[in-house]
Amino acid sequence: MRWPIPTLAALAALSGCGGDDKPLRTATVPGGEAIRIAADEYAFDPGRVVVTGAPPQLRITLDNVGSLAHNIRVLDGDRDLGGLRSFPSGEKRDTTARLPPGKYRLICTVGDHEELGMTGELEVRE
Question: CB–CB of 56/98 below 8 Å?
């Protein structure tokens, strides 16, 4: 799935905790390079993604390594900018997005996954 460049733009920093308070792993990725984000109950790994350089484009592979369906949505405040639809465990989905510099939230909108800690952070830097 591809998002229109003006609408969404860079999906990818996920933080998550499944209630176990693990340290948040951060990945820094040059714009245009791909990153693999694993989705598990109830966390994303890495939980924080920093995209650097112009163009601030990010290619993401969301790998559902959990036993439940998961998805990923990119939010600017409460505004949903786009993301991947839910898909079953054992599958991977790819997307490309571009966002202007700033900080964004990543969440899984399946059931109560967000409330259980399936959230992340995305920072886009010039």
Answer: yes
- Dist CA 43 CA 2 (whole Å): 24
**50 neighbors 28 (Cβ within 8 angstroms):** yes
What local confidence, expressed as pLDDT, does residue 90 receive?
98
Residue 56's domain spans which residues?
26-124
Q: What is the CATH number of the domain that holds 39?
A: 2.60.40.420
Cα dist from 123 to 7, 8, 29, 41, 91, whole Å: 17, 14, 10, 23, 26
Task: Name the stretches of the chain with pLDDT < 50.
Answer: 1-19
